[in-house]
Write a structure and sequence with these properties.
There is one protein chain. The chain is built from five helices and seven strands; from the N terminus they run H-E-E-E-E-E-E-E-H-H-H-H. The chain is α+β, with helices and mostly antiparallel strands. The protein has a domain at about 30-105: Thrombin, subunit H (Beta Barrel), CATH 2.40.10. The strands form two sheets. The chain has a four-stranded antiparallel beta sheet with strand order 1-2-3-4, with no helix packed on it. Strands 5-6-7 form a three-stranded antiparallel beta sheet, with no helix packed on it. Helix 1 (about 5-20) packs antiparallel against helix 4 (about 110-155). The protein is elongated, with a radius of gyration of 34 Å. The relative contact order is 0.09. Residues about 95-110 have low confidence and may be disordered.
Length: about 190
């Protein structure tokens, strides 16, 4: 293998290393609901929580931030939206009895705390997975770097080719032909 072939091989390995994209599968969970007037809504995650970004689904299936206001859902709950995020979740029955307020986990904060803990666990798991992928990629880069260093050391220890000296005067065409023959002989001798 000559120097140029070795360099080309190293270049191709480096390109392959950096162009390889690991496959990442991401599970997207969406909570869907509908307002009493038929507007379809979506929230990222399994459940709707306070401070969740909320979107309306238009007739083409596009997700658009929901406008500020209060909305009554088909399940009997009401939500308030501010700056495209759920700011309050309340039940219609809450308005009639104080006892319902105590029993409603959404309002007393338990529901939100539980959901935030579950979301934190999911995020931690996802981050751990990404860190493990990065560690694996770092290992590959280290291996490639070691291989590259050894190839470069090997190439730098090889002697350079001798320059050909022509003693007779030649035309430019004759000089090109002689150079071509010298290159051809050099290739034959290496193989």
């Amino acid at each position: 293998m000559n120097k140029q072939e070795a360099l080309n091989e190293i270049k191709s390995k480096i390109k392959a290393l950096f162009s390889a994209e690991p496959e990442v599968q991401v599970e997207v969970k969406l909570y869907s609901c509908e307002t009493k007037d038929g507007t379809k809504l979506e929230v990222d995650g399994d459940v709707m929580t306070i401070e969740s970004p909320i979107f309306r689904i238009d007739e083409n299936g596009n997700r658009l931030p929901l406008e500020d206001g209060e909305y009554e859902l088909t399940d009997g709950n009401k939500i308030s939206v501010m700056n495209g995020m759920v700011s309050e979740i309340s039940s219609i029955t809450e308005e009639t009895t104080d006892e319902a307020i105590v029993e409603n986990p959404v309002e007393n904060g338990d529901y939100k705390k539980k959901n935030e803990a579950e979301m934190s666990d999911d995020r931690i798991t996802a981050l751990e997975s990404k860190v493990n992928e990065l560690v694996d990629m770092l290992g590959l880069l280290t291996t490639a770097s070691t291989e590259l260093s050894s190839k470069l050391t090997e190439l730098s220890n090889q002697p350079a080719a001798k320059a050909e000296v022509f003693e007779k005067t030649m035309s430019a065409d004759e000089a090109r032909i002689e150079k071509f023959k010298a290159i051809q002989n050099g290739i034959k001798n290496k193989n």
